[in-house]
Specification:
single chain; alpha/beta; Glucose Oxidase, domain 1; 2 domains; 31% helix; elongated; aminopeptidase
Length: 393
């Protein structure tokens, strides 16, 4: 176990400290992909880099003035650049937005329109009509820029994060809503850039026969080292791959490091689905690892597209591992790619990960200080033993 933990620490320090934030399309993301690919090649895996087009988004900051007074503001991820000034207009509901004359004005949306992040235009897995209606109305109104007001008072939660939304967009903390509503004129500068580039998934295979797939996403949001989300999952699979390469099985082992789970349109996942999941019968089952290794938390597992017999077999195996517990399905994450294709899938994450979602995940706070390497090492052993147990049965 100690050697496993040492390997995990080494991989995570490379990913989180030497490389850092690994946003899809960035130079750091390419470095992470190359590091993982070279690691897997040295272990004897056949490695493919599955490329796809994307945006390398650069953010150099934002400035906002309301009636000449500076107000704290943040750029919405993937926002187009702007340097605008003009009249402020406001909408709290979709009806108000439809009746607004926002053309060439700075449009502030809040309340019902900002009660949750809106799905990107190209998101096909889940995109509520309500979200689509808000985006359509904004595009029809053609404001010079959009300012969204967070539903949290002290956190500027971005409501629009979409590289296909071409109206410049900024976000402010909820506590600034009264200041905005009193304003008449605004000046907004977003110093951003969208560069067309390519990125790649890492797909590594070992052996012959039907596949058992182990996946994690290697990318992060632009401003986080992504220790739990998801260097822990990536490191676990790199160490697991080493252990699996030492055993002979009757099936093919597949390691998939998705690139784009934290990118607005999930391009890596879409590419994998369209190019690699065309014959679901090639797969026996799949495991996705995302968010493991949180301090003071057990590791949870959940089932998707699994038969009752499969679940019973897995639970019978897991019952002897005290640090693992079953949880209800969460239908967001890369495991849904496999489940959607009818492939039995298991998702592993930290049981208490939801407590970090609003204040830690996708921020600089998601760093190595909140990681329990012992939990990650246990996950590696758990998956290694699961493969052996299921093979025997």
């Amino acid at each position: 176990m100690e050697k496993i933990k040492e390997s995990i620490v080494r991989h995570m320090k490379v990913l989180c400290e030497e490389i850092g934030a690994r946003a899809t399309g960035s130079k750091a993301n390419t470095q992470a992909v190359q590091y993982a690919a070279e690691t897997l090649e040295r272990l004897g895996y056949e490695v493919t880099l599955q490329e796809f087009p994307c945006i390398d988004w650069q953010n150099r900051g934002a400035q906002l003035k309301i009636d000449g007074q500076a107000l704290e503001v943040e750029v919405a991820e993937y926002a187009a650049p702007c340097e605008d000034s003009g009249e402020l207009v406001f909408a709290e509901t979709l009806e108000q937005l439809r009746n607004l004359n926002a053309t060439n004005k700075l449009c502030v949306i809040y309340g019902e329109l900002c009660k949750e992040p809106l799905m990107p235009k190209s998101m096909t897995f889940w995109n509520p009509e309500e979200h689509q209606a808000i985006i359509r109305e904004l595009e029809e109104q053609k404001p010079s820029a959009v300012i969204t007001v967070s539903f949290l008072s002290e956190v500027a939660v971005p409501i629009i994060q979409d590289g296909d939304f071409d109206i410049p967009c900024a976000t402010v903390k909820g506590k600034y809503l009264p200041t905005l509503l009193q304003g008449k004129q605004a000046e907004l500068t977003l110093d951003t850039e969208r560069r067309q580039t390519t990125a790649a998934n890492v797909i590594a295979t070992f052996g012959q026969g039907k596949k058992v797939s182990f996946s994690a996403h290697i990318d992060t949001k632009p401003t986080t080292p992504g220790a739990l989300d998801n260097a822990s999952g990536t490191a676990a699979l790199l160490v697991l791959a080493e252990r699996l390469a030492k055993t002979e099985e009757t099936f093919q082992k597949e390691i998939v490091l998705f690139n784009g789970e934290d990118y607005y349109s999930m391009p890596g996942e879409m590419t994998f689905m369209n190019q690699s999941l065309t014959v679901p019968e090639e797969y026996l089952w799949a495991v996705n690892v995302d968010g493991i290794g949180m301090k003071d938390s057990k590791t949870s597992y959940s089932f998707y597209a699994c038969s009752e017999l499969f679940e019973q077999r897995f639970e019978r195996f897991a019952v002897d591992n005290d640090e693992f517990e079953k949880t209800e399905p969460w239908p967001m994450g890369d495991h849904m790619l496999f489940a959607g294709a009818g492939i039995p899938a298991i998702a592993l994450t930290s049981s208490k990960i939801t407590t970090l979602m609003e204040m830690v995940m996708h921020t600089p706070k998601d760093n190595l200080s909140i990681v329990d390497y012992e939990r990650i090492a246990e996950t590696v052993c758990f998956l290694d033993q699961a493969v052996e147990t299921f093979t025997e049965e």
